[in-house]
Structure formats: C-alpha cells, structure tokens
Amino acid sequence: MPRHLLSAGDLSRAGAELILDTAERIDQAIAGREVRKLPTLRGRTVVNLFFEDSTRTRISFELAAKRLSADVINFSAKGSSVSKGESLKDTAWTLQAMGADAVVCRHSASGAPQQLSAWVDGHVVNAGDGTHEHPTQALLDAFTLRRHLGALDGRRIVVVGDVLHSRVARSNVLLLSTLGAQVTLVAPPTLVPVGVDAWPADVSYDLDAALTGADAVMMLRVQRERMSGAFFPTEREYSRWYGLDERRRGLLLPHSIVMHPGPMNRGMEITPGVADGVNSVIVEQVANGVTVRMAVLYLLLSGEMEVGL
Prior knowledge:
By secondary structure, this protein is of the alpha/beta class. It has helices at 13-31, 56-67, 88-97, 112-117, 135-149, 167-178, 207-211, 235-242, 246-249, 272-275, 282-302; strands spanning 45-50, 71-76, 102-107, 123-129, 156-160, 182-186, 202-204, 216-219, 257-259. The chain has a 5-stranded parallel β-sheet with strand order 7-6-5-8-9. It has a 4-stranded parallel β-sheet with strand order 2-1-3-4.
C-alpha cells in the first residue's frame, strides 16, 4: 500500500487486490453482527474535507470511518473559513494542528489532494479532484465487477458517456487495465479527451458494436456543470446515439451487468427500465462503496496487511 491513495495508477495489481480482498473479509466479518461496527480504528481521527457538493461519496466515507470506530470530522467549504478566503495550505495546517490521522479530500481543482499530501503528516485519500481521478470509485466498481464476474482477466468492460469530464472514467481505465480487463471507451468525439490514445483502453464511437458481447457496461453522467459549450446538439440526440435502453441492453451477454457511478440523468444516459431492471447493480455499487472505503482506511491507518478482527 502507498502512503496516500491519490490515483488508481499508484496501485499495483497486488496492491489493488489487497484492498479488494480486505474489503471482502471486512464484509464477511460484519455480515452476521447485530451492530455492524469494528473497533479497529478507535482513537484515530478522519477528516472529510469536501470543497465540492457530494452525497454518496461523503456519506460513504463517513459511514466507513464510523464503522471502524474512528472519530469523524466533516468539513464543508461552505460556512467555513474557506468562504472568507482561507487557502488550502492554511486549512491543511489547521488540520495538521488538530492531529488528523487521515484526510479525505474532494476538490474541484485537479491535483488538490496531491498538494495537500505535501502539507500534512496524515494519510490523504483522493475522493475526487476536478476532472482528474476518483480512485475509490474505481475500487468499488472493481469490487462489484469481481463479485459478479469473478477474475477480471480478459473481461470486456465498456465505459460510455462524458469521458472528457469524468474522473471516474480515468480511474476505472487505470485500475481495470491493471486487473487484466479490456476497457473500451465510447463517447461522442467532442467528449473524448486529448491524449486518450495513451490510455490503456480502446476508443469507439459506435455504442451498438462495443456493447455486443461485453461483460459489463458502465454509463457515465453527462456533467453539464462542467460544460461551457455545446458538446452535442440536444439531449434527445445524445440519448439516441449514446443512451442505454432495452434494445441495447439486449446486445450484452446474459451474465452482463449494468453500472453507473451516479447520480443518473434518467431518460438521457439510461432509461428507467434498464436502471432499475435485471442485472442492474447500481444500488449495489453504493453499498459496496462503504465496504471498500472501510478497507482503504483500515489499510492506510492500521499499517497492517491482514485484517485482525
């Protein structure tokens, strides 16, 4: 395990599998308990430092830390000294003075968690930075994929949508390729980032062809808040060419699963019937996020490679 979790690219295959295997053991350890809580990180302090609005990720990290018996401090930029002009560096020094053992950072600026890691002694976990990366989302996606597909070697995973603005896509390409999967990115040409040829993934503009015979499809949210121009004509046009409906669902293999990191633009990226239908694991992804983040915090803060429960 690295000292910080800033990028999915920082994880070797052994490191990624260690986190996923630890998450599996944690899930088994708490499954039969009336109180789903472990004393592992009692006395440790985890700070959730969120400069961007979030529901799933913030609550997931908070619940993960509390289930490990850590003390949790939730920091929101709104209503804090940041709104008065305090810099990220000053905020980091404040957290350092308070003795934070781990800082979970979400920021609109790419590279902010990396910079933060240079200013604090505690461990830093990237919970999403700009359009850069979101490593724990990739880990929970891999955890979900392994549960349904087994080993990921040779599995065909299709990632569809707003790749240009998606930190989830970047982290998933890096992690899934490390775990042996074959990743295909599908998006309108305007939503494919420059330099994608260097990514360990194939690129296609034909969704029907990419879905045929795939083991899993991951739909990405169209991030309107990051778009300053017209990247596609209309929402209806986007849905027609890059939305997942029942017909396209039928192109997948019988065992294939449908994923989405959320929140969903229902009717645009994915129809309600597919989102709530057979082989959709979207809700399961949210539940698995807590377990995987418990494993990340446990391994970073305990310094142990085996789960002693």
